[in-house]
Amino acid sequence: MNHLIVALIIFVCVFCSALLGLYLRTLLPEHHLDDDSIDVVKLATGLIATMAALVLGLLISSAKSSFDTVNASVTRDAVNVILLDRVLAQYGPQTQEIRGTLKQIVTVAVQQVASGDPAQQARLRRPEALERAEDFERKIEDLAPQNDKQRRLQARAIELTNEALAVRELGLLQAAGSTPTALLITLVLWLCIIFGAFGVFTPANATVTIALFLGALCTSIAIFLILEMNTPLDGMVTVSMSPMHEALAVIGH
Fold this sequence. Notes:
Blueprint: H1 3-27, H2 35-91, H3 96-114, H4 118-122, H5 127-141, H6 148-175, H7 181-200, H8 206-229, H9 242-250
Helix pairs in contact: 1-7, 1-8, 2-3, 2-6, 2-7, 2-8, 2-9, 3-5, 5-6, 7-8
């Protein structure tokens, strides 16, 4: 489901819980709203709020870590591609075709990632994409070095190819991650209880309603950002592909 729709649903649930609390206040007998009752509910609400804050912080930390990992993998891939192209260029004119294949593979991959289309991005995780990368590595292994320098360059090219594949797979695995549904539902349930309690023990007026509205809006925005950062290759919050575009401008020359 679209992350914006999920955030909107969460906002509606949380804010409606607050409005329900304001309504229930008008129905409850007075002895349910005395100081002792309010103190007990405040303690229970404080406990739930603490747990909700911990879970929200955990989700934010996890999403930020996932986003940073994919962002770093893009930069590392760009560096490896440039280094690999230069090593192949130093090997000699025998690698001209391989360098052309490298640029073609990188161009297609960047286009698929930057498209924002999940169907296009899914192709990066298909066996065919890995087979193309393995075929490219075999072409480097099939080179016939004529001297020690070319043997060293061939070994370095194979090493860079393996590193690029490892980083790419790590980035794709992180990009395919998602927020645990059970944890998200639990968090939203806790938020609804908290905002409902706010409404029950607060006299209804415009200021209170606006405050509850803004609180529900902020929490839904926070969850929206968590969902977006957990899918860093598509959506409104994505990693920058500038390093790969710069690498494409350099390689093959």
